[in-house]
Amino acid sequence: MMLLNSSRTTVNRIGSIISKTTFIRLNSSESRPLPPVQTPESLNILGNTYKTDEWTNATPTILSLTDRKLHKQPNHPLGILRNLIETKFEGMGYTYYNDFEPVVSTHENFDILGFPEDHPGRSKTDTYYINQSTLLRTHTSAHEAECFKTCKTPGYFITADVYRRDAIDRTHYPAFHQIEGARTWSRNEHGNNIVEVIRADLEALPKPNIVVENPSPVFHVDNPKQDNMSEVETELIAAHLKRTIEILVEDIFNRAKEVAIAAGSTDPDLHAPLKARWIEAYFPWTSPSWEIEVWWKGEWLEMCGCGIVKQNVLQNAGITDRIGWAFGIGLERTAMLLFGIPDIRLFWSQDERFLNQFEAGKINNFKPYSKYPGTVRDVAFWLPHVEKDGDLLHENDLTEMVRSIAGDLVENVSLHDEFVHPKTGKKSQCYRINYQSMDRSLTNSEINEYQDQVRQQLSEKYNVELLPRVFSSSLSQTRSIRPSLNTFNWSSTSTTVSQSRAGHQWAPRFKNVRKQHKGRVPVRTGGSLKGSAVSMGEYGLRLKSDGARLAAIQLKEADNTIMRIIRPIAGPKLFRMVHCNIAVAKKGNETRMGKGKGAFDFWACRVPTGKIVFELGGPNLHERVAREAFRLASDKLPGVYEIVKRGDLPKIGFQQVAAPVKRNFIEEQMKTPSNKKLANIIKSKDPEILKYKK
Ligand code: PHE
Predict the structure, then answer these.
(1) Would the N or C end of the chain have less CB density within 10 A of its end CB?
(2) Would you list the DSSP string of 291-304?
(3) Assigned CATH topology for domain 539-656
(4) Which CATH number is 42-356's, of 3.20.20.370, 3.30.2350.10, 3.30.70.120, 3.30.930.10?
(5) 141 CA → ligand 1 middle, Å
(6) Which of 477, 476, 457 is nearest to 466 (CA)?
(7) Residue nearest (by alpha carbon) to ligand 1 atom 9
(8) Which GO terms describe its molecular function (predicted)?
């Protein structure tokens, strides 16, 4: 369905529809019970009460938009645009409907229009359900049947608010407006003359001055004509439909040109005739179907979907003698270019500085009243392990959740990074949230509070394992560590400082740094093999000489050296196995008591003998390339290094030892249930318990 405003809805979303029984739980194979989702027993929308069920996914934020009726406000850009279109077709036999309420049945929205059962538009990730059989209309076509039935004129226009679960950014918002137009001719009334009547109606339409590409034939096997219409009838109706839309497009874009010229644009296209093209489309209730695209500011803009109404849709509405067309056009996009409104969320603004700029019947360029800086936050997590393929957490679910927490302060939510662990197959994701307000500055503490809620809800509702936050001083943003690099447990924070230094990639990205003694580099004396064998990639660079303190700046140099070599080859991946979490002060903290109170100068880490500093892995990595990269990198680092391969034995200090035997504590414990020590080890590995370990 739905091509307007939602070009990102693609069929492959079918695969990502989450569990049928609940809209928020995941079909996690883990046995840990998920906290129940709180949906009220019933919802009151515009004076009617609806029972909720496991399909309910309309949020209070979205429901609060249903009574705004922006298209009916005469001084609102959407109201002005509606008026303009209605005036354009005044006296041409159209009835205007502007009062349809947004809650409709699945029958009206989908079934009557012939949407197949598995159409992605029906999925809970794309549509707001009130309950299994009721939803917030996703398009104005939901009222087509009713209007065909009741309308007394040959044509009609429906303007209304429509709702689709979608990402939020400057051009997408989960609520927007559409105008639906339709026009039919009655066989009963015109009899054999119907062709002449349509032809006359077509000829009576003004000829718009635009250059139109109309490459494909009116109908063919893939965009077929209907059986109850002759070829001539189909051609004439198609021509009438296209001409009507071209008139609309010409009117809108000529006005947009005037506004752009008045605003000082020197684009040469603005003085050339308007260009548009027809392309074929598919809608379940029209055939043949098309879309029109308009050349605007250097790109093709998709304006509206349309087609010849299928016979059975009219028959379902009890109309057997009429044939005709329908189209649907999104108002926001059009209004954005007409009024120069840069952000779709502004339409919902209740700020006087926005509302007072517009006046009924007038098109003027929007003047930004202020620009406040935005702020970015990342949230990264491991998804719970599931047996089956498929996304556990749809981008729309996350967007929705963030929106329900921070409302319109959310400028944009996007999947920033994704990582599948090569061994465990576990998947981690990093989402980037852009917070921005149109009319005020945001404070860090306020955004951090929202971000805390986002994290909390993510872990409660989706059972994800959150990755700790990190801090990038160069961008002054709180970020999460890239999961792929996170082989180190950062979570210990006791005494904390918030100080920023050296904003490069090797500086720690967490905000709260534990102040600690620079300390001695540990010497491995027998206990730990940690990090001494290749674990992530295929080759590793291991410290061979005495333990060293490596500064972030040195590691960065070595990192750059390796990247310079592997970057041109697609595939190889660098794993950074040590992390700089020690704030070193060049003078002072050696002699001071405690953990050092003053400022510090650089970041460093302690690397004991036998620890791997870098690993290289991934496809297309030749051993000689890895060796060369490591050889050059080790020149940049203090100490002597050796190059090891996957499978090489781990080391304790200088001593190579046999690979440790992996113990299966659970099995051991089952054999000796009285062994308390084993029970404690198992407990200490439980992720739930780890959360509380500071
Ligand atoms: N309802 C369609 C949409 O939302 C547009 C459309 C309307 C297409 C009428 C054909 C006929 O994309």
Answers:
(1) C
(2) EEEEEETTEEEEEE
(3) Aldehyde Oxidoreductase; domain 3 (3.90.1170)
(4) 3.30.930.10
(5) 6
(6) 457
(7) 327
(8) ATP binding; phenylalanine-tRNA ligase activity; rRNA binding; structural constituent of ribosome; tRNA binding
**Looking at ligand 1, which residue's alpha carbon is closest to its atom 10?**
306
Q: Which residue has the tokens 């059989």?
A: 133
Tell which atom from ligand 1 comes closest to the C-alpha of 178: 4
Atom of ligand 1 nearest to the CA of 182: 9
CA-closest candidate to residue 609, choices 562, 558, 575, 656: 656
- Please give the pLDDT value at position 96: 97
Which residues fall within 8 angstroms of residue 521, CB to CB, at 6 or more apart? 546, 547, 548, 549, 606, 607, 608
Which token pair is 453? 């809620």
Cβ(467)–Cβ(482) under 8 Å?
no
* Closest approach atom of ligand 1 to CA 2: 12
Tell me the residue length of the chain: 694
CATH architecture type of domain 375-466:
2-Layer Sandwich (3.30)
Angle at 603 between CA 602 and CA 608, to 5 degrees: 130
* Cα(624)–Cα(560) distance, integer angstroms: 18
The rounded Å distance from CA 440 to ligand 1 centre is 37
Cα distances (Å, whole numbers) of residue 157 to 82, 142, 241, 294: 10, 13, 14, 22
Query: What pTM was estimated for this model as a whole?
Result: 0.61
CA of 164 to the centre of ligand 1 (A): 14
The domains of the chain are located at 42-356, 375-466, 539-656, 663-693
| Average pLDDT along the chain, 694 residues, taken 10 residues at a time | 37 28 31 53 94 93 94 97 95 96 97 92 94 97 95 97 88 94 96 95 94 91 94 96 96 90 84 92 95 90 94 92 96 92 91 92 86 83 70 81 88 83 84 85 89 91 81 35 30 31 57 60 75 92 90 91 90 90 62 48 84 93 93 93 92 78 78 81 77 63
